[in-house]
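note to self — DONT lose this again. spent like an hour looking for the file last time. sequence + predicted structure for the chain T wanted, 154 res
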Amino acid sequence: MTRSKASLLLFALTGCLHRSPDAAVLGPLVPYFTEEHNDQSNQPEYIVFADQLTATVFESLKRNAHYRITPMGTRLVCPSNPAPEPHCYSLRARVIKLMGDSAIATIERTYFTGGPTQAVWGGTIRYSDDFLLLRRGGKWRVEKRINGSSMIAI
């Protein structure tokens, strides 16, 4: 009897190892991210996840008709586009700091502009938003957006 209980416990613990604790913290950012892009004219057309954690957390975007998810490792280059905003980018979410029942997390959107066929310029634009998340009753939620930044590298 004890041997079967130990096997069952080992099996349960093995299943827990696949789930990153950061994924639970980052989960509430998904609705925030999709609400942020309600303006149909500026929605990204293509998204590539920058890492496996982001792909796991934002997996529901694959079922959202507004986004086209490309395979990880794909480098997206936005073609010459008359629209003022880029429509393709790499998405990364990560936990910056975890302190008990509070956490600081970030969503980064990296746009690759230009390329060998464009005569104007080519570079990278990175938008980053930092959030304070709180855990209450065992569930994480976004308390507030605490910072936003953009960086242009030519």
